[in-house]
Write a structure and sequence with these properties.
Strand content: 15-25%
Number of strands: 18
CATH topology of one domain: 2-enoyl-CoA Hydratase, Chain A, domain 1
Helix content: 25-40%
CATH superfamily of one domain: 2-enoyl-CoA Hydratase, Chain A, domain 1
CATH class of one domain: Alpha Beta
Structural class: alpha+beta
Shape: globular
Distance between the termini: 61 Å
Length: about 500
Amino acid sequence: MKYYKQQNLFKHIQYIFLLLLFPFFSCISAKQKNYTFNKKQPAQNLQADIKLLKKILVANHPSLYWYTSKDSIDTYFNNAINSITDSLTELQFKNKVAAIVSKIRCGHTNVRFSKNFSQQAKDFLYPVFPLHLKVWNDSLVVLANAHKNDSVIVKGTIITSINNRKPQQLLDSFYQFISTDGYSNNYKNQSISNNFPSWYKSIFGLDSVYTITYIDSVGNEATTLLKNFSPIKIEPTKQDSVATEIIKQTISRKQIRQAKLLQKRSMQIDTSINTAYIRLNTFSDGKLRIFFRKSLKEIHQKNIKNVVIDLRQNGGGNVATTTNILKYFADKPFKHGDSIFANSSNIKYKKYIKNWWLYWVPMHLFSRKEKDGKIHYKRYETHYYKPRRKNYFKGQVYLVQGGQTFSAATMFISTLKNQANVTVVGEETGGGYYGNSAMHILTIILPNSKLRISLPIYRLVINKNRPKGRGIMPDIEIPPFSIAIKNGVDIKLQTIIKMIKANQ
């Protein structure tokens, strides 16, 4: 036994040495010389990229056939390869690849433009479709009109068609390029709502004028024309430059850091209803451990009875941080999953995977091969984390969720859901309730197009007894409403406040 422990320790020391050494041997170039924005690539190069992508996914992805059969995946790849008969721009090819990858139905496997394209994308932004729209089911509602002097199409206006395409037709077209966990479209809806003009231009191209059909102020369907939008460039004057410099000098670095932290998390206390409102947009960065330690101490000292945690913009983050925060609210010991495993401890096609060594080392340190042949993260499968004693919150907890609630944020909510003092409000999460493929996320860089495809290494089954294929359903479902959008009302928070007052 002593010999085994020494060998194991020696093995760990070897891995740590390799971890320090590997950065010097990184083989993927971060910069591409003589780059031409959105240039066309020969068909054979793009076909080769798709063939390589399939090999990498088959070798490494833990859930490639979780929702879609092997025969279907093979067909999607073959059809894409056969459809490339001529050179394509990076945008056109990105759409091809995204349409394949979305069929895997894994929200952590998605496609991004090349680094060079992203750095120069400002040249592609304008002109653009002029309306920012909130989308859900078969509904399109105006959030903002870039033509600010337009008094017809205003915030809250219901759109019934764009260039004779009905809402469902538009959304079905967008959906096929967006990856999500299982069969829920709510994450896709939120992604489109975040930047409808960009999605429209990427999929349907640019028109000089758009025919917009909408519901007017008296409830009748009407039609208008809208031009595409480009901002007017105004050269800054000397006075503008001086004013900008004065503003920069008056804002300290500490204030800038504080502003960045507030974008990630914040807390406000309303003593009139004895409630703390915590906005939590990530489980990474943001000095969250310190923030929650101080926040829960203040909540305890002020004897606050209700806590609202808003996770609508939370796309996930660090599992250890998620665990740390859960301990303040969980009423019993909890673990992270029934099974957490990778296909192999050997990441294949390393040449095309950026910084693969960052994940290879912890995989060998903390995972081991089990009887099923898979590489299991045993601690997360078997270890139960106990609730805190100090500043543990025993009052009523309200969790607000939506389509962008994903990954670790879904784990957080799923642990607390059905707890007696917890109420979940909002819309279906984008992240899967049953599980997902995540934990360690690598980046594939295709050699010809330089497209970047995220590659999860572990499959996480949070609870094998839950329904598979959808997000977390809220206890109280509150979908978007056009009238709430028009009036700028947060109907989800309003509902929670009414509940708190009723309980008082």
